[in-house]
Amino acid sequence: MNAEILKNKIPQFIKDLHHPFAINSGFGIDALDIPAEAFCNPDSLERSSSAEIPSDLFKRIKVSNEWKVWSEVDSQLSEILDCQEALNTVKEFQFHININETSLPPSSTLDLFVQLFDKTRQMKTLTWEGTILKYEGQEQLPPSPIEQHFTLHNVQFPGVTTMILDPNMHFLVHMAPNLQSLSSPSDPDWVRWRRWGFPHPLGNPTLGLVKAASGASKLREFDLVALWTNELTSEFHQGFPVLETIQLHGSLDGFGPDGYEFGEVFNGTLEDISHLKALTKISLPFDQNPQLGLEFPDCEYCSAVEARKLARFELTHSLALSETVANIVVERLPKLKRVCFQRYACTAVVSGERPTWPWTGKLREYVLEASPRFRGYNESGMFEEEDPNGPVLETWEEDQVWFSQGGRGERNNGAADEL
After folding, report:
1. Which of 39, 79, 135, 228 has its CA 20 to 30 A from that of 252?
2. What is the DSSP string of 79-133?
């Protein structure tokens, strides 16, 4: 698309900007004689007839092929290439590109990507999400046409310090020599397959991302959602020379519902992580959401009071297990300064001391605060009230086991054989 055509309409990529100015100034944009000139040429007289255009309007640009044919993607990329102000000021590109064997990007589209990256070398953040190539009857991921084209044209991202990548886009990592932070989307396609108990039809693409990350010599933060296996963590034995923070989100392979089925994998994971010599912060893949106790668990035929007690037990068990795990982690990784569980709970680590948590030494009080005694109407509309002087858990015996000094929840002396 040439500049003359662009002058006569509002570029679609400007309409798609998630910037407050673009969202709230729709009518003003429509009223401009030559909207592209006003937005894309900072010296344009068109700007004098519009509201003051913010300098960060093009800071973040998104391109997606969802519900689009490739010619529409070409149009979006061409609009950006014709907008000098966008090329000069963009700091972050967000791409959501789905490809499969029946919808491969043509060379013309990939050429536009190459041109775009060549003209925006000041870009700091690159996000690339999208579904994995799916080929019927093939067990391994075939070579990506994007990877082949970018490699052929020697695409580089010299200014990029942050990447958020679907695992199948791992090849982009080595094109960013100054990469400092690497993460994955919150729930990659392959993780959902594994969570449901099925192997992904194209294997484990996350392994490719971990391998790529190990070769990023300036990487300081690695945040990955995965089903963590010892095959993945064994990659920590080499590379990652300056990695300070690792966030293992998702779940640990072998971590069963009762929390005590993963000792071998867990110990192997810690052994692998101990090879990360610069590591000072770790986030572990256990879900310690303090709001858990406020939810109705799946308890068929339970009363609201019984359901609340069950929720308290689940929370109590979860918090006690997390404390046990944290003690083992700090003992095995003595250089740590901070330990977290997913994104819900973090605590500082003082050298030579066990970490303390908001519930340390007062588990009963913490659980009751997070999950108060029930008084109200249940899901059937019947009023229920829990005995304010009754046990916190189902029985006084359980309270004794978990809340007494030296009980399972309060003893705070995590050992590997407890896992």
Report:
1. 135
2. HHHT-HHHHHH--EEEEE----TTSPPPHHHHHHHHHHHHH-TT--EEEEE-PPP
Which residues lie below 8 Å from residue 371, measured CB to CB, with a gap of 6+? 292, 293, 294, 308, 311, 312, 315
Beta bridge partners of 345: 341
**Tokens 């900072």 -> residue:** 42
pTM tops 0.70, yes or no: yes
Contact between 361 and 410 under an 8 Å Cβ cutoff? The reply is yes
Going by the DSSP 8-state scheme, the letter that residue 379 receives in this structure is: T
| Both tokens assigned to 199 | 């192997």
CB 371 within 8 A of CB 308: yes
The C-alpha atoms of residue 293 and residue 286 are separated, in whole angstroms, by 16
Domain ranges of the chain: 286-419
Give the residue carrying structure tokens 């030296």: 406
Q: What mean pLDDT value characterizes the chain? A: 82
> 10 Å Cβ neighbour count for 238?
10
